[in-house]
Amino acid sequence: SKLVYTFGGDASHGDDPRAKDKNLLGGKGANLAEMASIGLPVPPGFTITTEECVRYLKEGSDFSADLRADIAKALTHIERTVGKNFGDESDPLLVSVRSGARVSMPGMMDTVLNLGLNDKTVEGLAKVAGDDRFAWDSYRRFIQMYSDVVLGLDHGLFEEALEIAKEDNGFFADTEMTADDWRALVKEFKAIVEREQGEPFPQDVHAQLWGAIAAVFDSWDSDRAKVYRRLNDIPGDWGTAVNVQAMVFGNMGDTSATGVAFTRDPATGEKAYYGEFLVNAQGEDVVAGIRTPQYLTLRAREAAGADKPSMEEAMPDAYGELAKVFELLEAHYADMQDIEFTVERGKLWMLQTRSGKRTAAAALKLAVDMVEEGLIDEKTAILRVDPMALDQLLHPTLDPDAARDVLTTGLPASPGAASGIIVLDADTAEHKAERGESVILCRVETSPEDIHGMHAAKGILTARGGMTSHAAVVARGMGRCCVSGASAVSINLKDRTLRIGDRELKEGDTITLDGGTGQVMAGKVATIEPKMAGDFATLMEWADRIRRMKVRTNAETPEDCVTARKFGAEGIGLCRTEHMFFDASRISAVREMILAEDEGGRRKALAKLLPEQRKDFTEIFEAMAPLPCTIRLLDPPLHEFLPTGDQEFAELAEITGFGVDHLRRRAEELHEFNPMLGHRGCRLGITYPEIYEMQARAIFEAACDVAEKSGNAPVPEVMIPLVGTKRELAILRKLVNDIAAEVFAERGRELEYLVGTMIELPRAALMAGEIAEEARFFSFGTNDLTQTTLGVSRDDAGRFLSTYVEKGIYGRDPFVSLDVEGVGQLVSLAVERGRATRLDIKLGICGEHGGDPASILFCEKTGLDYVSASPYRVPIARLAAAQASL
Ligand code: PEP
Ligand code: MG
Predict the structure, then answer these.
(1) Which ligand has an atom closest to residue 846 CA?
(2) Distances from the Cα of 310 to the Cαs of 250, 254, 275, 343, 750, in angstroms?
(3) Which residues bind substrate (predicted)?
């Protein structure tokens, strides 16, 4: 099979399906080939496959003879198409070399431009172009980029040399540098290379090319790429492709330019071309944010009140071409595209297209608009929105009426709002965030080295860079709010201060960002709840029509119930009653119950708790009726409720009349070495039935009260935790039934209710056939089921799990995303055995996995009836359930 695929010119691969394969050619390579094949102006080039990268990395970084031969042929294709030869001293072919994995990865080596220049070819280039300055500018850029990304030298050394050269000449901008200035700088750059690496800058153009190819391959295994892969769940064995393409030049004077654009607004989804360009510049100038770019359209320029002309005004012909390309690309891909282009002396060239990263709000608007435009159908629209991205829309935004102490306004690069403390570097951001602090990462500009800090931060502020700068693009992809290009901000890393105009702030001071307006504010600004209307509601309606599984919520307070219902919850899948026990006003009665010497003592304390529990359930039923509510009886080990400090013991002594010493001794008796596997769950109900009796009574009395008062009867589903045997459930089911009968007799009314169990122990899953004889429903408690199946403690896993994920032992944290292969087998088996006994047994999941899209897909395939997720995850689960059923 081929190792290299050509594109552009007369390249053709017959009907070889691999020639279109994104997995093989990477997103960039596949799309370049596709653009060329639909007749768009793409400079010719070739793509080395991802397979070859994987082979190269596995087999010890050696190029095969086959690869050398294929690349020689592919180079000839480029040479023939453009009519120039690589290394030709009179008229050299120059190429760009770029990485390109299946999905775009900011952690990897990105681009080397102008490859093929050396001391001889630079003269040839100058002659052919008739422009000395352009040729020497290109050469110094090449040395700088190649030294940075291929030779691994510190780019700061080169930037510093350039700054000094400008200072010596009294220049402000790079554009003031003349041909001779660039020539002198090249000399200096070469001296830096020789000094730093002990050998001269490579003059052999083929050695340059192989060096760049090796650098792209090796970048797949760089630390930054690994971090990015871990954060984004990208497998380590995909590899990256390498794209080598004939150069076109955006830096050939004032009729040349380079830019990046989106076919629609990636922040809002609005149907308007959107982008930035720079006259007389090369691609990386736009992204690096070194010069502030100009707007693409007249409309955008006017809206921003900028004075430099837009591309529409400055280069109307090339702009017209570009607009046509936008339309063609959107029609072809039926999606919003993110594009890189270059104009070389008036002629437009396309360098990249890909589906554009977008904010959640934009994703919704694009999906809904494109259905209305007839570009895509509803199912495609549902699949277009990443359920996890909805999270961005479900959280509070800044209150428009709250007072704002605005320090400055930058570009609204990624929407949302965030308050947090100022942090000036990525490592500190990560460190502080790990300790639970909200941080705002403030940088002059960001680079891929900052990814981990951006991920840890609530928001990102940069002093330099446009709407398509690294910070802006990455922040939008991550759903972090971002204000970029706030040029009034100056950062002093030595003093750890940040100055905005005449206000001096310190690292650690609180600021607030508004990514929708670009405002930077001092202090914390009040927020308001989000609205679930418009495109959000439309897409959710489509999703609800398609999904099979119901979506419930895990909730234990009336407030949570109200939130979850607003988000579309169709019932409670798990109400953890112990959360009610922790309430400050009740904890002493709970402690009194636990520390009592005998049943009589416990009953006395439980009698105090009954009215409180009844009130809890009444409020919950009122919020949820007539939807089903699964209420779980007490689960955690009793020692979790015990008093700890002297004061807590003293208070309890007062209430109970027992001495502090006596209470301390009782508490010690209750100590467990392994409480998660100890006296908890249904074992409490078996040993102290009076606890479950009180809870069952509270449930049924509350249900009767609500039915009487509102006529809207709730359907309680009483759930027994941590069952491992049929007998446990049989005993406790009888207990619940007896109490129900008692309460119904007292109240003179019968209500529908169910008794069921959690399946959260491997034995329960294995014995599900038998257990189903006693259970009307199963709810998979995948938190405990994961803990007990893997033998990994939920509470202690944090110490080693990240290493496990890094080393690929687990693909993802198994407490976040269900271990489908292992734990999944137990779930499938229990479903099968449970249904075999009781055909209409109700099946759901209430572990954290119920809100995780990948796990929801598993639940759909396994045939569960519902998933239950925390309130803010309910919309995510609704969309994920719809996607799962497609
Ligand atoms: C579970 O174990 O998955 C569960 C939902 O119960 P808890 O998290 O309360 O143990
Ligand atoms: Mg559990």
Answers:
(1) 1
(2) 16, 14, 10, 14, 74
(3) 576, 632, 760, 781-784
Strands of 648-759 (E only): list them: 715-720, 754-759
Is-same-fold flag (257-358; 547-576+760-886)?
no
Atom of ligand 1 nearest to the CA of 760: 2
Ligand 1 binding residues, C-beta < 6 A: 574, 576, 635, 760, 781-784, 846-847
Nearest to 31 by CA among 377, 357, 473, 337: 337
If you take atom 1 of ligand 1, which residue's CA is the nearest one?
Answer: 781
- For the CA atoms of 364, 368, 371, 372, what is the dihedral angle to 10 degrees? -150
Nearest-ligand number for the alpha carbon of 782: 1
Each residue's pLDDT tens digit, 34-72: 999 999 999 999 999 999 999 999 988 789 999 999 999
Cβ-Cβ contacts under 8 Å for 545 (sequence gap 6 or more): none
Q: Pick the closest to residue 454 from 470, 467, 468 (CA basis).
A: 470
Grouping H, G, I as helix, E, B as strand and the rest as coil, residue 493 is coil
Given a contact cutoff of 8 angstroms between Cβ atoms, the answer to whether 591 and 660 are in contact is no
Quickly list DSSP for 847-867.
SGGGG-HHHHHHHHHHT-SEE
Residue indicated by tokens 């023939």: 80
Ligand 1 atom closest to residue 846's alpha carbon, by position in its atom list: 5
Rounded Cα distance between 106 and 449, Å, is 9
The whole-angstrom separation of Cα 692 and Cα 70 is 75
Expressed in angstroms and rounded, the spacing between residue 781 Cα and the centre of ligand 1 is: 5
Q: Closest ligand 1 atom to the C-alpha of 849?
A: 3
Instruction: Identify the CATH assignment for 257-358 out of 3.40.50.2300, 3.30.470.20, 2.30.29.30, 3.40.50.720.
Output: 3.30.470.20
Query: 734 C-alpha to center of ligand 2: Å?
Result: 22
| Distance from C-alpha of 616 to C-alpha of 624, rounded to nearest angstrom | 12
- In the chain, domain spans: 257-358, 395-528, 547-576+760-886, 577-710+729-750
Q: Whose CA is nearest to atom 4 of ligand 1?
A: 781
- pLDDT at residue 750 is higher than 80: yes
CATH of domain 395-528: 3.50.30.10
**Stronger pLDDT, 735 or 487, i.e. the higher one:** 735
Q: For helices 587-595 and 646-656, give the axis angle rounded to 10 degrees.
A: 80
Supply 546's token pair: 């398609």
The whole-number pLDDT of residue 732 equals: 98
Question: Helix, strand, or coil here: 769?
Answer: helix
Q: What is the mean pLDDT of residues 207-225?
A: 94
Residue 450 Cα to chain centre, angstroms: 15
Q: What is the pLDDT of residue 288?
A: 62
Cα separation, 44 vs 29, whole angstroms: 11
Query: SS3 for 271?
Result: coil
Which of 320, 316, 330, 310 lies closest to 262, judged by CA?
330
The SS3 assignment for 22 reads helix
CA–CA separation, 764 and 287 (whole Å): 56
| CA 575–ligand 1 middle distance (angstroms) | 10
How far, in Å, is the centroid of ligand 1 from the Cα of 782? 7
Annotation: binding site: 576, 632, 760, 781-784
CATH of 547-576+760-886, one of 3.30.70.260, 3.40.50.1000, 3.20.20.60, 3.40.50.300: 3.20.20.60
In eight-state DSSP terms, residue 90 is S
- What CATH class has 577-710+729-750? alpha beta
pLDDT, tens digit, 9 for 90 and up, residues 100-132: 999 888 778 778 999 999 999 999 999 999 999
Among all residues, which ones are annotated catalytic?
A: 470, 846
Which residue, judged by its Cα, is nearest atom 8 of ligand 1? 783
φ/ψ of 59, rounded to 5, equals: -95, 25
pLDDT of residue 287: 64
Whole-structure pTM over 0.90, yes or no? no
- What's the rounded Cα separation, in Å, for the pair 515 and 293? 20
